[in-house]
UniProtKB/TrEMBL annotation:
It comes from the Bacteria. It comes from Pseudonocardia acidicola. The lineage of its organism: Bacteria, Bacillati, Actinomycetota, Actinomycetes, Pseudonocardiales. Residues 369-403 are annotated as: Disordered. InterPro entries: Acyl_transf_3_dom. It is found in: Cell membrane. This is Acyltransferase.
Length: 403
């Protein structure tokens, strides 16, 4: 990429709507629900289930790339006012985080009740660590990134002209982080922090740096992706085979399926990058062909609802699988139980979000205001069309990878 031609942070201009991000977000969310469904429906030590999870475990890294991309693209030409930025982000993400942490803590306590004092202590711990349910860590990490985002911008500005070196150094650091975190027998401070490593922004620093750098060089990266589909396809196959091969070798060597699918493994880094690149390529191709039809409207609407779906879908996974051998999901044999639960969870989550968006609780439960009829975004990707609103990247005003 040409760093000399990247837009210099600090200059005011209008940021165009990146429609490709809509499809990246929708595809990644589909995979998020898939990995959670596989992990919820199947036994925790299922080797076939772990094989699927290994390939689906790119989702959190993909969202951190998207989070940094969205925010840096939004503010790459200036206009960031720190106090309003923090106020908006913590309102749209922090409030739902607190509310859903309380709701999911209540769900967990419904099956294992505790005295009021102990239950309150559990809620406080869950809020501090992002562990109320298996997906809420992402919101906690996102808020940590919002907090340091002004410094992140300064880092990108200070390394202008050396972004390739920054990405390389960050990738090397990520390898070290993954090696430290992927420890089968942790001791000392590592054992103390390891259960909460997934809730710390530093654990994903490479993917945030990658997303930020790509945003600053979006035009060059977009052109390269469009010109090299064969390279992306080969990278996708090779890195996916390497990740799956590493999983199979680990299991054959006596490693448990859960540990073998750990997201903090160096082999996952190239796989995650390859998937994000391929998803973006698909998004770019869709952008070129979108014409406001049913498919395009569905993608844009699904992208807009994605944060709410992320928040609510574990409720349906829990409802379909609670009770173990007597659950609803147990009435079908594997793998049909997984497919059925996935379809139901997706449809039910979308329907629930549509209903929530019509209520006064929409903001605190979905991170979005109540639904109102709005005109379509103008298509900024076609010659002669008007640019989208300056704050849009992949749908709504940029709030991060999720929203």
């Amino acid at each position: 990429m040409s760093e000399e031609t990247a837009t210099r942070p600090g200059r005011a201009s209008r940021a165009r709507h990146v429609y490709a991000a809509d499809l990246v977000r929708v595809l990644t969310f589909a995979c998020v629900i898939a990995v959670h469904t596989v992990s919820t429906v199947n036994p925790i030590d299922s080797v076939p289930g772990g094989a699927a999870v290994m390939l689906l475990h790119f989702t959190r890294e993909a969202f951190f790339v998207l989070t940094a991309f969205v925010l840096v693209h939004r503010y790459r030409t200036g206009g960031l006012r720190v106090a309003p930025f923090w106020r908006r982000r913590f309102l749209l993400v922090g409030v739902p985080y607190v509310v859903w942490s309380a709701l999911y803590t209540g769900i967990a306590l419904s099956t294992a009740p505790l005295p009021a004092g102990e239950a309150l202590a559990v809620l406080v711990r869950n809020l501090l660590t992002g562990t109320a349910w298996f997906h809420l860590y992402f919101l906690l990490v996102s808020m940590q990134f919002y907090l340091v985002f002004p410094l992140f911008q300064r880092l990108l500005a200070a390394t202008r002209g050396r972004h390739g070196l920054l990405v390389a150094a960050s990738a090397a650091l990520q390898v070290v982080i993954d090696i430290v975190l992927h420890d089968p027998t942790p001791t000392g401070w590592v054992a103390a922090v390891l259960p909460y490593a997934g809730s710390f922004v530093g654990s994903y620093q490479f993917f945030l740096v990658l997303g930020g750098v790509v945003a600053l060089h979006h035009e060059q990266v977009d052109a390269w992706v469009r010109a090299h589909p064969a390279v992306l396809a080969v990278a996708f196959v090779v890195t996916g085979a390497a990740a799956e091969g590493w999983y199979q070798w680990s299991v054959a060597s006596g490693v448990g399926a859960v540990f073998a699918t750990d997201v903090f493994q160096p082999v996952m880094i190239p796989w995650c990058v390859a998937v994000v690149a391929v998803f973006y390529a698909l998004g770019a191709a869709w952008t070129d062909r979108r014409a406001g039809g049913l498919g395009s409207r569905f993608v844009e609407r699904a992208s807009d609802r994605s944060f709410g779906v992320f928040l609510v879908h574990p409720v349906f996974l829990w409802a379909l699988t609670v009770g173990g051998a007597g659950s609803v999901a147990s009435h079908l044999p594997a793998p049909w139980s997984t497919f059925a639960v996935y379809v139901v969870a997706v449809i039910a989550s979308l329907a629930a979000v549509e209903l929530l968006r019509l209520t006064p609780l929409s903001l605190i439960l979905t991170g979005k205001g109540r639904s109102r009829r709005r005109s379509q975004h103008p298509d900024s990707t076609r010659t002669g069309s008007r640019p989208a609103a300056p704050s849009t990247v992949g749908g709504e005003p940029a709030q991060g990878g999720l929203t």
